[in-house]
Design a protein that fits this description.
The chain is 18% helix and 28% strand. By secondary structure, the protein is α/β, with parallel strands linked by helices. Strands 5-4-1-8-13-10-14 form a seven-stranded mixed β-sheet, sandwiched between helices. The chain has a seven-stranded parallel β-sheet with strand order 17-20-23-26-29-32-34, with no helix packed on it.
């Protein structure tokens, strides 16, 4: 392999358990976002837009949809002989296989892949954030500051800082301390989970920490160890849009950000495009009595009803008389005649019958998972069917093919679930 100045290692094996039923059949980076995109598209597009043409994607949890989406990297111009994109799943070594047991452990298990390119620098990324960043600017900063490690940080409120990993830095942005979820934070510089390491430093750290921690993690182990060794760590301040869509509410809010009149995050800039694997689909069709306002409507959709303040994925059919409001409808769904959906997230390939109401009633937290479903958003898992005429409340979860018999008196009251089989955690 030809030597590369910098390669990227994209950690995309996370389960995303706080997204509940939305990640029951797929890894979090494979979740649809903004109509036609997947969450991983943002990090992948950032790489190619930044001139990083060698990307290792580390997968683990339910990787099938993610692997199918990435393929050989054609949408991102990463189908290359020297470099390009490579899927890196856990694999057998010796007599048995070994799962990735931490973020740094995952990189450690792929040292041989990195050595193939003998890079000067390694860029470590998460595959589950929404943002646009020029990694070449961050690399220039890394070189200029003569750092061993550069960590991207963003200023957050002090309230948020107590829930995040905080980097305390001096006036030269040299990091002298790392605090994980501090009760009384000394600064508001939150780690974004984006690192540039000089490869020799990272390789040595991974090999040393492996002897101490089998679940080696960058935040818990590698960064504190390097600080103890007085390595030079620099904070790269990033002041643009960046969202961790790790909860049902934050995922819903980030989608809603896209439909503002002047959105904080713009998907339509020509100079920094977000690429994705999308089929050539027919244009949107709107019927005689349809109405759409302040919404994103993806290719191949047929809108006969009304759509307000919503994000609609590709090949969605919204029948006449239906109203979709403040909601996310992912690809290939059908919303039946005269149905009303408010503040919902509907995963791919769902069918909602006629005269259905979803998102009605009081805002009662979910009985089984109040920490996941508590913001008034009702969620339908992938390939769920809803029969005609039922009413579903707020903070409900429905998954699978349901029938009228599943709904007492034709209702599912707020905070309740109907689960009909699942591959992963709901």
């Amino acid at each position: 392999m030809r030597k590369k100045e910098m390669i990227a290692m994209l950690l995309a094996g996370g389960q995303g358990s706080r997204l509940g039923v939305l990640t029951a059949t797929k890894a979090k980076p494979a979740l649809s976002f903004g109509g036609k995109y997947k969450i991983i598209d943002f990090a992948m597009s950032n790489c190619i837009n930044s001139g990083v043409d060698t990307v290792g994607v580390l997968t683990q949890y339910l990787p099938l949809q993610l692997n199918q989406h990435i393929g050989i990297g054609i949408p991102w111009d990463l189908d290359r002989r020297n470099g390009g994109v490579t899927i890196l799943a856990p694999h057998v070594k010796g007599d048995q296989g070994e799962w990735y047991s931490g973020t740094a452990n995952a990189i450690y298990q792929n040292i041989s892949f990195i050595n193939n390119y003998n890079p000067d620098y390694v860029l470590i990324l998460g595959g589950d954030h929404i943002y646009k960043m020029d990694y070449s600017d961050m690399l220039s900063f890394h070189k200029k500051s003569k750092a061993d490690v550069t960590i991207a940080v963003q200023e957050v409120s002090l309230e948020e800082a107590s829930r995040m990993g905080i980097m305390n830095a001096d006036e030269n942005d040299s990091i002298y301390e790392f605090e994980e979820k501090p009760k009384n934070p000394k600064s508001n510089l939150a780690s974004m989970g984006i690192y540039i390491f000089s490869w020799s430093i990272l390789r040595e750290a991974l090999e040393a920490d492996r002897l101490v921690h089998s679940d080696s993690d960058f935040g818990k182990h590698i960064i504190p160890m390097l600080l103890e060794q007085n390595k030079r760590l620099s904070a790269y301040r990033f002041n643009e849009y960046w969202k961790d869509v790790g909860t049902v509410e934050s995922y819903w809010m980030a989608n809603m950000d896209l439909i503002q009149t002047l959105p904080d995050f713009n998907l339509y800039e020509d100079f920094w495009k977000i690429y994705t694997d999308s089929d050539h689909q027919p244009p949107v069709y709107t019927g005689l009595n349809s109405e759409t306002s302040t919404s994103i409507i993806s290719e191949g959709s047929e809108i006969m009803g009304r759509v307000r303040n919503s994000v609609v994925g590709p090949e969605v059919i919204i029948e006449e008389g239906a109203l979709v409001q403040d909601s996310i409808i992912m690809g290939r769904c059908v919303i039946g005649k005269n149905s009303i959906l408010e503040r919902c997230i509907i995963d791919n390939s769902c069918v909602v019958g006629d005269d259905v109401s979803i998102g009605v009633g009081d805002n009662i937290p979910n009985k089984n998972k109040p920490h996941v479903y508590d913001s008034g958003i009702t969620v339908l898992g992938e390939s769920t069917n809803i029969p005609n005429g039922v009413k579903i409340g707020k903070n409900c979860v429905v998954y699978g093919s349901t029938t009228l018999e599943d709904y007492a008196d034709g209702q599912l009251l707020s905070g309740n679930d109907i689960i009909r089989g699942s591959e992963g955690e709901i």
